[in-house]
Amino acid sequence: MPEDVAKRNANRRKRYAENREKFLAYLHKYRELHPEVHQDISSRYYGRNRAKVLKRTREYKKFHKDRHYAHFLIGAMVYFGLIVKPTHCENCGKERRLQGHHHKGYSKEYVLDIVWLCVPCHVKADAAMRDVLPELLPAL
Q1: Is residue 87 part of a domain?
Q2: Is residue 66 part of a domain?
Q3: For burial by CB atoms within 10 Å, which of 52, 105, 109, 140 has the most?
Q4: What is the pTM of this model?
Q5: Which of the 8 DSSP states describes residue 95?
Q6: pLDDT, greater one: 59 or 5
Q7: Residue 104, C-beta contacts closer than 8 angstroms, at least 6 positions apart
């Protein structure tokens, strides 16, 4: 790698480290305004790395059978109309794309006990659960 490229990369990493929160806020705003760009990037990655993605998916299913079952079941029930997915987050009330949050865990007795949250609220809820109940959400 030429010396000037290495120096530029080092400067970029330094600026990113100093302005991480500002950079991430910009990135989230950009992704909200241009979801098709992120989707296009994801599609191209999948196209180039299909075997890698499928291997990772198989490993996830193997090690997290209860989670996979829960996600599959909720998705199927929404698809067939047995569960109606709301349009607004149950936490913040914003109209966004929602995810089902298994707030009591993935065991069979709680598999249908979900709260519909937007992605930012879901991330916060999972982080809070890891602090309170680390045995329910082991590290991936």
Answers
A1: yes
A2: no
A3: 105
A4: 0.61
A5: B
A6: 59
A7: 110, 113
